[in-house]
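pasting for ref
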Amino acid sequence: MILPLAALTLSGCIAKTVVDVATAPVRAASQAADWATTSQDESDRERGREIRRREERLGELSEDYEELQEDCLDGDDRACREAVAMRAEMDELRASLPAEPQD
């Protein structure tokens, strides 16, 4: 009497194992797809972080540019060349930032 009950119980375990093994590739593929795709919310957050990084870099460059301009006006040719290169980088950063809304 115990043998038939054990057989029924084990057959349920075996059936569950078979189902788990059969669905494992599907679950793995689904998880890989989740990892490979980026939600719109994640994209928006990353875009915001990138914009803030560019704005911070632009602020740093602006401060350094002011100092180089002063040195350039005092006759430092090296400072003039660096100011020109820095201005080009600043212009490139400004072009990559989204436009400010008009009031």
